[in-house]
Every structure is written in C-alpha cells, then in structure tokens.
Design a protein that fits this description.
Elements (H helix, E strand, L loop, with lengths): L9 H10 L3 H15 L4 E2 L10 E4 L4 E4 L7 E7 L6 H16 L6 E7 L7 H9 L5 E5 L2 H10 L4 E6 L2 E6 L3 E4 L5 E5 L9 H14 L4 H13 L1
Parallel strand pairs: 4-5, 5-6
Antiparallel strand pairs: 1-10, 2-3, 2-6, 4-9, 7-8, 9-10
Helix pairs in contact: 3-6
C-alpha cells in the first residue's frame, strides 16, 4: 500500500531548499528584513536642544514658531524643492512611515525647512510639500533664521552659484521631537536602501502614543512660550 505524502519536517524543507539552490537567497531576504526592522535611529534625549525657530509657513504665509506645534510629534528635515533624489525619497519614505501609524499620524507634523530660499519661494514650497501629504509643512526663513536653526542642530548646508548653475548640499538626517518640543531621536537617513520604515514607525508610535499635552494645557503652553 502506498502512503500519502505527509507534511515535510523543518529539516526536510531546508534540505529541499538547499538542494534547489534557494537557501542562500531566502537567508539573504530574511537578513535584509531583519535589518530593516531593527531601528538604526539614535536616542538623543538630553543631548540636543529643544525645538526652537521662527520662520514663515508656506501654506498660509504666516510667521510660525515651535510653539505652534506643541502637542505634536515633530520631524524636522532640511532640504530643497529642486533636490533630484534624496529629498523626494526621504519625504516619500516618511509618508510610508506615517501610513504605518494609522490614526496616530494625525498627531505628527513634518517640518520641511528649505536651505535654498532664493529659489524656494512660498508658492513653490507650498506646491512641493502638498504633494507629500497634509502632515508636511514647508518652512522658509531669512538667511539669518535658517543659519540659526541649522547651527542649533549642527546641520551643514551650502548653496553655491556659478553663473546659472546651482550646487546645493545638505544633511540627510531627520530630527524627531516629542509633544513638549524636546529632542528625542535622530534618524540618520530615510534615503537608504532598504529604508527603516518599520523600525521608524515603531519609534514614532511610541512617541505619538504619549506625546500630547492636550486641550487647555497645550493652549497654555503655547501662550507661555509666546510670552517667554
């Protein structure tokens, strides 16, 4: 009597995979997934100053400060709209991170600070950031405001003009602040391959779950910061 085939043991599956030359790519895939799930983000609590700035918001041309975003988890990123690769890739991956947060994403704001304010006028910046979702806020400052903010977080940038040619450089890190405006995380880059989408979403979920001084307390904090 012929017996029907039963379920393969784990050893049998691995043996077949090895025999078919599939074990190595399977292991590589598993390793890549494990690396993408492991957080590369750096805890900077107590090591970087709290969020502070004064700039013009592209969406409504209103001058805003860090106090306008108290109660939100804030991602601060420096870039420019003419950036061919790193900026759009970073913002696209941030959007993917926010989608992982579900309803908690409503408590996250992404502040995109242009390092190229001469070309990034408010209308240009408004149109660019709108393409990446409602949580992305375009900010444009004077040269002094931009330099002060970059110096505060040790961000290097440069804009070189030779004739009609522009060369712009800027850091790729994303700075993360909690609902009180305190620096909590440094995301080295979201333009890597593969980007740490899952791990970054997990980090933000922890902050967003506990972030917000809400209601009247949040309003009082904003008023106090405006006075101070």
């Amino acid at each position: 009597m012929t017996r029907g085939a039963g379920p393969l043991s784990r050893r049998g599956v691995l043996g077949l995979a090895a025999g078919a030359g599939l074990l190595r790519p399977l292991c590589a895939l598993a390793q890549a997934q494990a690396q993408s799930d492991r957080s590369p983000n750096i805890d900077v609590s107590g090591n970087l100053p709290a969020l502070r700035f004064t700039m013009t918001r592209a969406a409504d041309a209103r001058q805003v400060t860090a106090a306008d975003y108290r109660g939100d988890v804030v991602l601060l990123y420096f870039g420019y709209t003419f950036c061919p690769d790193v900026c759009p890739l970073t913002l696209t991956n941030i959007d993917a991170v926010l989608k992982r947060l579900g309803p908690l994403a409503s408590g996250v704001r992404v502040l995109f600070v242009t390092v190229d304010p001469d070309r990034d006028t408010l209308p240009v910046l408004r149109e660019y950031t709108a393409a990446f979702g409602p949580q992305v806020v375009g900010l444009r400052g004077t040269s002094d405001q931009l330099a002060a903010l970059a110096r505060r977080y040790r961000v290097a940038y440069s804009v070189t003009r030779v004739g009609g040619h522009y060369e712009v450089t800027h850091g790729s890190a994303v700075y993360v602040f909690d609902g009180s405006g305190d620096a909590r995380l440094l995301v080295p880059s979201l333009a890597t391959t593969p980007p740490a989408i899952t791990a970054t979403a997990a980090d933000l979920r922890r902050l967003a779950s506990t972030a917000a001084p809400s209601g009247i307390l949040s309003h009082m904090l904003r008023l106090l910061e405006g006075i101070v």
